[in-house]
Amino acid sequence: MFFLNKLKKQPKFNTYDYNDFLTRKIGLEDINYITTDISSVKDIVTKVFENMDDFFIREIKVTEDHVVNFYFFIGLIDTSLFQESIIRPITDRSKSDQNINVDSLGDLMNMVQYFEPKDWKELLERCMRGEVICHFSGNKPVTIALGDVETRSLQNPSTEQQVYGPKIGFIEDVHKNMALMRKYFPDPRLKIQKYQAGSVTHTQLALVYLEEYADPAVVRKLQERLSKIKTDQILTSKMLSQYLVDFPKTPFPLAMKTERPDRVAFSLTQGKVAILINNSTFSLILPISLINFYETGDDNDESSTWSHSFIMFLRIACVMVAAMFPSVYVALVAFHPELIPTTLAMTLAASRNNIPLPAGFEALLMMFALDVLVESSIRLPSFIGQTIGIVGGLVIGQAAVEAGIVSSTMVIVIAFTAIASFTAPSWEIASTWRVVRYVLLITTLFLGLYGLTLIICLLFIHLCALHSVSKPYLTPFAPLNVKEAVNTFFRLNPEARQEEGEANEK
């Protein structure tokens, strides 16, 4: 009780609205009004950006009656362009006696355009995104886009490998990602709407969809949820998805993450909606169904329809193996050995001879060792991770069998389970089934085949209850849509995907 009381007395972290912060920091009741007084603007901007060593102010006296101030962050702008296109033309004009006003700003600066913010919030945010605040005395301050933030070049995605298809992926710049989507769809029906989330991060978001393809109700619901996000930070796609999905507490992903533009383009033609996130290589696709996690972009490049069908059936079979194989093995060996054929039962009994652990705890030990190896190989550098995988899988496994700690059959079961789980194209759905595998195994450990059947029934009930932005998670199987279900496994005509998109729109 003492410990619980101490926990209750722990201080809570306070969160503040960005507008409230600006109001308190600036000291003005109305942050929507920007004054024209150059001294007042300088005092306010200096106060907001105090204790920032990368923030600079440059003042140029043009004439006796006109002064221009520039406010910028040195690492966010192109300094050479700033010098050539802005500073040099103004200093050259300052040698004359002509009066300067905001209407002549375009004539003073070569090949640059300025923007007049509507309030202090927009003015300061534009400055922090790489624009220069330019304030002529007697006029309202304007901003000039001179951003020079370093970005990666387009490269092959590292987390979604595929045989066919384009070899480019999204980068951390949302504007370049939007341009990538424009290359896929040079069509006015491609709609892109920009949002901002996070009172501290001010993360830029882009809602992308195809008009006449996407369900208008889904688009409106996502627009409403994006506009109502109230949080301090949106740094990753997972943080964003928690505010968009219907059941954020479920272990199953209700929004698909991808860093492949071709996959997003294909999803848009199916009537789905994509959300691009600044500072993240992953975009979100909604609404989504469980079967979509087992489709890849290069499925459309398969030379044979039957080859695609075989791969889809193989992936679905691997799902069942990865989730239930250890549990079924434990249920048969520990609770229902009479269900095993005689010859196989004798082989299994011989392999388990002198093994000190029960089959259930043996499976838990091996699954735990497998997950430790997987996590260590992921976090370590690639050249070390491969070595860890080989050493752990071969040396430790063989040594455990020879020492009589685990049976050779259990090593085969866990190894085949691991291989089957890695056939999932999406790592997030593979991680979900990894958690489900533990739940099934622990239940089977106490209740046998009856417990396994009970948990599987509860799992299907949970999956049937899930929705992704009002779309059933088990579509097209529950509710059953025969035509769409057949098109998922047998793409026998070129209109199959288009019909699926029309079904999603309805």
TrEMBL record:
Keyword Transmembrane: yes
Transmembrane segments: 313-335, 355-373, 380-399, 405-427, 439-463
Cellular compartments annotated: Cell membrane; Membrane
Keywords (A to Z) from UniProt: Membrane, Transmembrane, Transmembrane helix
Domain of life: Bacteria
First-listed, main subcellular location of the protein, grouped into a coarse class: membrane
UniProt xrefs under InterPro entries: Spore_Ger, UPF0353/GerABKA_families
Membrane topology: Multi-pass membrane protein
Family: Belongs to the GerABKA family.
Name the UniProt record assigns to this protein: Spore germination protein
Source organism of the structure: Alkalihalobacterium chitinilyticum
